[in-house]
DNA sequence: CCCCGTCCCGTGAACGTTCACGGGAACGTT
DNA sequence: AACGTTCCCGTGAACGTTCACGGGACGGGG
């Protein structure tokens, strides 16, 4: 049952093959498959049968080429398993779906080196990119070649880019004020342990602490994981045993601290108050539930998608002052 | 500064425009952009400048049409925020990336009605689909029109499909044996509350319990969330106060039960042992860490991607008996 | 008998890119 | 001077689909 002439190469089944098999023209096949009018019932059925018989599937490229109605955006994140990025990704997906867009997701596995390769390969697959990058702007620029790019949680210098700013200054101030109101004066912080630059969150903490006449120097670094948070808390308490409250770089670390506190026999919040950052759903699963300087991750993803959409269609992009997510204190049982 | 003739339509900038602007031919532009040889340095630079000037970006459709070397798969899940699917998705992404594939992710927001629409729209965008669906097979078939489809955690009847089976029988047996060895005889279960069919996990539990002469009737339904787990535990303990250990439908519910146990003042595992199902990373964050009948989610995603790849290339697909993930007991502090 | 409308269906063109091939210029070799 | 090589660059074709248009068959009204 050799079909056609030539070697039985693994050639793709095209619309022509279906047309020939059904004894009609391409256009009729197209009509049958796309449910258009101007086709007789019996013909339509015959074409559909032929298509199924041959295992025909239209080429998305050919189709996309002629009717340019599908937009696809790329979403680049360092680690989908990190709950923060999970939430951002889920929100971005939700917003994209509402617009009928497709989202190609790339997980760079926490390796900044992968980012550029990803961007390279992404370039020919998507119309715009939303993502969390850690590499330099000029590199981003080079590998992105005039494609709209929206950065998450990071400032941008080049005019080409947009970025969603995370402003936690006020939220952290609230957190410290909250702790002070509860009678705490010895407040520590678990910062991230990347010593490249002092983290913004640390700066916010320092400012807030000073505002209450509190020594902002009780800080320890912690690896960005629950285990890291536990180890960090041990180190912090060893260096500053007087501490009665701790603010952490994010919720993951806070959860680790919570767990470690219990292991150390310090009850929360009586012996040790804990406040995290990000406001992940994860925090609500803890007992006591985690207090957190909460980010509206849904708004974060939403803004990013909205902006990349404007950049795409040429509509006036949102001004930087609107591209901002404000963190607010969400007090719970742990403080 | 009106360019070209005609209305200044929002026409796409094509390779021709760049070629004209740089005073060369299409092919030379293509060479410059793709970093090929056979082009002079100065010419290349001139083309690159022109491209940047015009904001040119190659059409992925035209490119994909001619060099058919990119494969894209669709990943359909009910809820990315559900940690189980997060882990599966992350694994699938990882495996796809290793093969250089792109992954379009669709979150159906727990609405089965969305599944078909998604499949419909997906059809012209991806080469194959991996996903967790809850709609009927014939519907899946209709909307998928000869596209490879791999089902996760669900049996299939039609030969067209593949599915990754989850076998927890042995793991649940281990769990019950473990509890019995610890002296428990009154073991309850928090099942899911969807009353359509009795869950497989419940059947496994029943069989395992009977194997040890234990009454398998101490069961309560729980909504699939932490809060649901908490409420379920309360209901279960109210109906069967004698219970000293509980097995749950999944880890999410278990986490809720863990939290509720603490609120009720029952210490874990001394007063109440808890064993979940899935083996999510989430469980390790609890204190005590959650025991669980653990699934290798990485293998799950990996198998699915592998299989859809084989279906895609026409290689011999994996036989059903290899498409199986076995759950094993991973004991921890909560039991 | 002619005309017009409706219902189907087919043909050329276009979408934007890369591949295969050919060809001119410059340079060196015989 | 004729010829081969190397280096650049351009032209036709192809990828597989949909859009715009045209046209035949058939039926009904004048």
How would you sum up this structure in a few lines?
The structure is a homodimer of 335-residue chains. Chain A has 335 residues and is α/β, with parallel strands linked by helices.
Describe this structure in words.
The structure is a homodimer of 335-residue chains. Chain A is an alpha/beta fold and 335 residues long. Chain A folds into three domains: 15-66, 434 Repressor (Amino-terminal Domain); 72-167 and 297-327, Rossmann fold, CATH 3.40.50; 169-296, 3-Layer(aba) Sandwich (Rossmann fold), CATH 3.40.50.2300. Helix content of chain A is 42%, strand content 17%. Chain A is built from twelve helices and twelve strands. In chain A, the strands form two sheets. The first copy, chain A, has a six-stranded parallel beta sheet with strand order 2-1-3-4-5-11, with helices on both faces. In chain A, α5 (83-99) links the parallel β1 (72-77) and β2. In chain A, α1 crosses α2 (26-33), α1 crosses α3 and α5 crosses α12. Chain A is elongated, with a radius of gyration of 27 Å. The termini of chain A are far apart. Chains A and B meet through α4, α5, β2 and α11 of A and α4, α5, β2 and α11 of B. Chains A, B: GO terms for molecular function: DNA-binding transcription factor activity; transcription cis-regulatory region binding.
């Amino acid at each position: 049952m050799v079909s056609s002439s030539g070697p039985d190469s693994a050639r793709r089944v095209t619309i022509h093959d279906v047309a020939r098999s059904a004894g009609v023209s391409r256009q009729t096949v197209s009509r049958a498959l796309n449910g258009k009018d101007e086709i007789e019932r019996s013909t339509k059925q015959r074409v559909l049968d032929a298509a199924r018989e041959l295992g025909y599937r239209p080429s998305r490229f050919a189709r996309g080429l002629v009717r340019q109605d599908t937009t696809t955006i790329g979403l680049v994140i360092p680690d989908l398993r990190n709950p923060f990025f999970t939430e951002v990704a889920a929100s971005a997906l939700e917003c994209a779906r509402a617009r009928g867009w497709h989202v190609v997701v790339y997980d760079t596995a926490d390796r900044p080196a992968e980012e550029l390769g990803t961007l390279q390969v992404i370039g020919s697959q998507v119309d715009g990119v939303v993502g969390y990058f850690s590499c330099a702007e000029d590199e981003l620029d080079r590998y992105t070649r005039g494609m709209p790019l929206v950065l998450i949680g990071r400032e941008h210098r080049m005019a080409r880019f947009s970025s969603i700013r995370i402003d936690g200054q006020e939220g952290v101030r609230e957190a410290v004020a909250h702790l002070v109101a509860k009678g705490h004066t010895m407040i520590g912080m678990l910062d991230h342990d990347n010593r490249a630059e002092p983290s913004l969150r640390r700066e916010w903490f320092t400012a807030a602490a000073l505002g209450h006449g509190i020594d902002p120097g009780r800080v320890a670094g912690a690896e960005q994981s629950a285990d890291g948070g536990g180890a960090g808390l041990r180190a912090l308490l060893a260096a500053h045993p007087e501490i009665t409250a701790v603010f952490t770089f994010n919720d993951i670390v806070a959860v680790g601290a919570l767990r470690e506190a219990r292991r150390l026999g310090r009850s929360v919040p009586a012996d040790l108050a804990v406040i995290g950052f990000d406001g992940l759903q994860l925090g609500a699963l803890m007992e006591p539930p985690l207090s957190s300087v909460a980010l509206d991750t849904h708004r974060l993803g939403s803004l990013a998608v909205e902006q990349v959409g404007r950049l795409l269609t040429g509509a006036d992009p949102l001004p930087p002052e609107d591209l901002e997510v404000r963190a607010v204190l969400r007090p719970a049982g742990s403080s």
